[in-house]
Amino acid sequence: MVYTSFGFKNLPYNDAVNLISKIETAINENSKYLDDNHDNNNLYLKIDDITVLIYQQFADVKIRVFWNGFDAEWMQTEFAKTKRRMMRKLR
């Protein structure tokens, strides 16, 4: 049996922009560290009750978001698309 559930966390504008910005900054400032061909190179962020794990698998940077028992994964291209859409909607 497969169980799929969904959750929604309401983030005020400033918190949403701050979350995206912190993730993007962490990736940009640590890109060499992530690229070092080590399977154990992980970045960890704790933002309020959200935990973010950033790692590289093969050539792709992946972002896992843990919140309230949920575990979601973004590839870096999906993250960039989400950021563009969010910023367009929040203007």
Report on this structure:
The structure is a single chain. It is built from three helices and four strands, in the order ααββββα. A four-stranded antiparallel beta sheet has the order 1-2-3-4. Strand 2 (50-57) and strand 3 form a beta hairpin. By secondary structure, it is α+β, with helices and mostly antiparallel strands. The termini are far apart.
Layout of helices and strands:
Elements (H helix, E strand, L loop, with lengths): L12 H17 L1 H4 L7 E6 L2 E8 L2 E8 L2 E6 H15 L1
Antiparallel strand pairs: 1-2, 2-3, 3-4
Number of strands: 4
Give the class from helix and strand content and strand pairing: alpha+beta
| SSE run | HHEEEEH
Widest sheet: strand order?
Answer: 1-2-3-4
Which value, in Å, is the CA radius of gyration?
Answer: 14 Å
Average pLDDT: 85
Helix content: 25-40%
- Regions with little confidence, pLDDT below 50 for 5+ residues: none
The coarse silhouette is globular
Strand content: 25-35%
What is the CA-CA span between the terminal residues?
A: 42 Å
Major sheet description = 4 strands, antiparallel
DSSP helix count? 3
